[in-house]
Amino acid sequence: MTDTENLLEVRGLKVYFDIKGGILKRTVGVVQAVDGIDLDIKHGEILGLVGESGCGKTTAGRAILRLLEPTAGVVRYNGQNIYEVRHAEMKPYRARMQIVFQDPYSSLDPRSKVGDIVGEGLRVHGVTDRNERQQRVLEALRMVGLQEHHMRRFPHEFSGGQRQRIGIARALVLNPKFIVCDEPVSALDVSIQSQVLNLLKDLQQSLNLTLLFIAHDMSVVEHLCNRVAVMYLGKIVEVAEREELFSNPQHPYTQALMSAIPVANPKIKKDRIILQGDPPSPLNPPPGCRFHTRCLEAVDICSQEEPELIDLGNNHLCACHLRQPDTVS
Amino acid sequence: MRTDSASPQLELPVADVAEITRPPKGLWRETLERLLRKPSAIVGLTMLGILALLAIFAPVIATHDPLAVLLDIPEEGAQKRMSPCIHLLGCPGAGDDLVHTTTDATIEISALSATNSLMLAASGNTIEVWDTETGDSLMTLEHELPVTAVSWSPNDQKILSASGDELFVWDVNTRKVSRTLPLEGGANLVTWNADGTRFLSADDHNVRLWDATLWSQVGLIELEDERTAAEWNANGTLVMIASGSSVKLWNAFVGTEVASLDHDAPVISASFNRSSNRILTVIDNELHLWNTASFQEEMMIEYDGPLANGTWNENVSRGVGYVMASSDGTGLVWDDKTGELVLELPHGERIEALSGSPLATRVYTKGEYSVRVWDMSTGEEALSIKLDTPIANTSWLNTGGSILIASDNDLRIVKTTDYQYLMGVDGNVRDQFSRVIYGTRVSLMVGLTTVSLAVILGSISGAIAGFVGGWVDNIIMRIMDVMLAFPPLILAIAVVTVLGPGLQNALLAISIVFIPAYARVARSGVLAVKEEDYVTADRALGVRPVRILFRRIMPNALAPLIVQATLGIGTAILDAAALSFLGLGAQPPTPEWGAMLGAERNQIFTAPHLVFYPGIAIMITVLAFNLLGDGLRDALDPRLDR
Amino acid sequence: MVSFLARRLTLAIPVLLGILFVTFALSRLLPGDPCRSALGEHATDEICDAFNERYGLNDSIPEQFRIYINDVLHGDLGDSIRFGRPVDELMVERLPVTVELSFYAMLFAVLVGIPLGMVSAYYHNSAADVGTMIGANIGVSMPVFWLGLMLSYVFGVALKDTPLWLPPSGRLTAGVSIQPFYEAWGWNVNPDTLTFSGFLANINTLNAVLVGDWAGLRDALKHMILPAIALGTIPLAIIARMTRSSLLEVLGMNYVRTARAKGVRESQVVLKHAFRNAMLPVVTIIGLSLGSLLSGAVLTETIFGLSGVGRILYDSITGRDYTVVQAFTLIIAVIFVFINLIVDTLYAYLDPRIRLE
Asked: How confident is the model at residue B21 (pLDDT cuts 50, 70, 90)?
């Protein structure tokens, strides 16, 4: 792995939230939403980030875009640590890095027309000429399959899928290099999901985009991503190429996730791994490996020592005491 | 049917971009449509529309200048009327009776009390007293012998009557005789002085002076010739008595002669002017005007016919003054400064009396069977009243719009003008209706400006508190908490007192008091909207925080603020009215409803309509805003829809 | 519950400090010269110097503030400049009037407002409901001072000579007096000094009950009716509206349907299941209205000739009586804060969910 290969490098990213309480609003607890993750995102790839809800993947996505200030860590975009850039000078990075949200209903200002929603980014980034702005908004809308007359409409006049297209157009209009897609289809009807996924894939290819695709649905990830990172309770537990991960999942948590993917053939019998209990609270994560409280294979060391994310070979990284390079099955 | 192959490939439709889930309507339009389905909102909007029209077209709708003191004749009877007088619905016009009562015997004497709230008539042995407004008979005072003279005390509390050889002092409250004083020879005239401390009684040759605190006679003036006039001066220190060819002034305390104004012929009539600095006397065909400081004659006016009934007709505040007399069937009016003959009033029948209205804008002339009212500025006849029975007595009511006429068994108050003062006339003789109409302007302005100011200041501070958070939030909201710890009106009173009374300062004070309410609403709205994804999207695009706050967050946090503001307008109007009521807001003569209420509050027992109408106006305006606010709240928050 | 109370009390401290500051600032900002307004236009400079010295008005503003805080914390509210009496004496004299008035106003509002709201909600959309709500809307739109004046006209003048006549002003008919209960009970209380007994004795109706003076009680109550109605009408309308909407919401809840389905008697459903839960927002609104009553009290007391807190506050603000303004705004604000505290606590008591953090 060389630096030039990676568009984005995340190192030791931590995002903690203070819980205030008591009489004097003292900090009574810390939510360790993202607790030290390392991630490389290569030029032109689609990296999937999967995990249960509440595992910190959305927080990680937003911290990577500096929509949240991290507690610690580094995010390098083309080698530049964006957390060191002064707020006033963030603008150029904003144009390069964009986001598509999960909920197409809350992500569009109900009081702005579509044209203004999509054109806002252009306005901010110095496209002062109205005609030019309109032209580029139109281009972006066409790219996502919308028409010129849609510019003058309000968001509530559109269906969920159409709204999500508007959200994508808003992200695209500044010609970004990198887009965080925060579960962009999970709020949509299943029939619409594939359309939007296909659209994203097409756009990624034609515009040579790099995507961080956050999802909790393994089948969506399998359909779309080049590489997949699995997150559990604020930590990355496994990263691998798609084929590698799906054919050869290593981490017990990943294996449990895989076994939950429904197969569209009732004859195939599967050994489903049913995890017991709920994920522990990020307020008070368990010591050692965070998964040991629910892990079927857990041994003593798991509750004492935190496993490192190590390369098992074949660019397959896994954080488990029981999966060392020599033990790979 | 089951197959072993993978599930059949679903034919997914191509993105249907023309699909539209809801008809293309703007958010505002939709809200408006929802609003218009609320009955309360429709009523509120309609009421506001009417109020706005009243405010805009106030100069057209108002019948008078709201600030002008009326020189026209105020309509008597409207003073205490609660329901507006609408002409088409049978509002009395000129010549109509406002009050009509009858007695058992022929009325010899009639008199209005000093405040005009009561009137009496003496017929035979009895005196009957009525309420002037309603015509209700209040009491009947029985004597053993015929009543020969009656007089009201200046405070309406006592009636003095002469009957046989006795004087009776009646207490109006107990309806009983409180004193009986022996009076040798009886009296055909009794009169109180201006402050009610003395009175006089007179027969043709004797005038007695009485002390009304000790209830004893303090002086007796015996006259050689028959008395033709006896009158108190304005402050009750002098008595003027005319008999024979001289008019003499007497000290009222000790009964000694002060001066004598001598004439060449018998004096037919003599009278003080209103401020008692001049005396008008009539002999033959001459009028004489005397100065009561120097006791010298100032002017003599001659006419080519015999004169009678000399009288003054003046209004000091308007600066006009006339002297009047009658010559057989003609009423005559001269300017009292130049002596120039101004008007000749052709009454026709021999004139028995003539009198100017309190504002000196009109004159009536009275014959045996008729009364005619004349306009002073034109000399035209305004009204003619003819009766079948002889007229015993007439007099103007204080407000000058109507005349009390006693004739035979009938006592009536006749309206002399067509003027309508829908809601009466206030204590400063201004048209209440016009003032209420103009008040709409003030109140709408007050409501809108105070709330706008409060909303702007409150929403900016609240929005900044919510958006920035941290210590900024803490400081701003603690300040708001402190302000909220004071009852609003008390804080407003305090602020106005610091700034000084006046409408503008009252507006400012109310705005300041309302800031915390809007700050809270704005803050919670901003806190809610701040977490929306579309705000995050803006940040991802690098939009400046200020623009995010004011262009993105605020418009979306506005709905509850609008509801709060609409409901707040009502409260602001109420509070502004309260401040004005207490004398801290709008200052006279501004036609502001609260100030009008405050100015007339002491009239509540005598003229409740002066309090009633401005209050109703406040209530209607506040109600309109409240109804609209309720409707808006329901329309903007469909969850509360029921 | 204790920690809840402790937290609320701690939160009130900065507000109380702010109130102290504001009352001080307000009184110093009042325009005009307190000396000349107390002693008349013709007071000489020497007299005024002595006057200012006596009332500490020559010290620097921060020093005055420090002394003020110190005095207040020691319970010393100072002397009235105009009345020349300690402010706490005035308070013992005036506060009971307002407390009594507010109590009866609120009693009227609650006793009439809640049943009206309940009937309105239960017979939703009936003529009674619509009528009540129109009435409530009109009620909140009426100026207190106008209502007071109209009431005193209607009951004091128009209905004179009928059994419905009520006295339009004052606290007791001239000539009627009620013996202070501490005298009747033979307590040794000096009526000229600040005592709680004095405070209680100034609440006429309470005092009349304590000494068993039923004629006096009747007279005092008669004088209280019109002011209480005038002051209580706006809270009445607010309470009726709130009861209605809150009960409507609760009556639509599934647990009420369940209770009905179980065959619970209708009166039990409404009174036991629905009413208790519907009372939560009503309690809040009653608490908030108690605060606004103090605003209305200024106007009501002015109209009905009652010399209570509102009246003295208005008189002293316009008469530049610094110490009285300070002390009374302070006490009102403090009462206000504590009423809110009580409402919060009551709310927490009624709704166990609130006690959870």
From this structure: very low
Residue finishing a domain among C73, C99, C122: C73
Residue C355 in any domain: the answer is: no
pLDDT for C102-137, tens place per residue? 999 999 999 999 999 999 998 988 999 999 999 999
The verdict on C93 and C183 lying in the same domain is yes
Q: How far apart are the CA of A25 and the nearest CA of chain C, in angstroms?
A: 10
Q: Which of A193, A167, A195, A192 has the alpha carbon at shortest distance from A181?
A: A167
Using the Cβ of A190 and the Cβ atoms of chain C, whether some distance falls under 8 Å is answered with: no
- CATH number of the domain that residue C92 is part of: 1.10.3720.10
Strand partners for B217: B210
Pair C225, C168 in one domain = yes
The 10s digit of each residue's pLDDT in A11-49 is 999 999 887 755 555 667 788 889 889 999 999 999 999
Q: Which strands sit side by side in the sheet containing A178-182, from one edge to the other? A: A97-100, A178-182, A210-215, A46-50, A227-232, A235-241, A317-318, A310-311
Check if C22 contacts B (Cβ < 8 Å): yes
* B541 and chain A in contact, CB less than 8 A: yes
The C-alpha angle with vertex C173 and arms to C170 and C179, in degrees rounded to 5, equals 105
Task: Detail the DSSP E strand segments found in B445-572.
Answer: none
Q: Which of C41, C73, C105 is the last residue of a domain?
A: C73
Q: Residue B12 — pLDDT band, cuts 50, 70, 90?
A: very low
Residue C82 in domain: no
Taking the alpha carbons at both ends of chain A, their separation in whole angstroms is 24
Residue C58 is part of which domain span? 2-73
Tokens of C103: 């109590």
Chains that touch C (3 or more CB pairs under 8 A): A, B
pTM, full prediction = 0.74
Do C252 and C123 lie in one domain? The reply is yes
> Do C63 and C98 share a domain, yes or no?
no
Alpha helices in C252-350 (DSSP H): 254-261, 266-268, 275-303, 309-318, 322-350
Q: Summarize the confidence of residues B437-443 as an average pLDDT.
A: 94
Q: How many domains does chain C have?
A: 2
The interface predicted TM-score (ipTM) is: 0.88
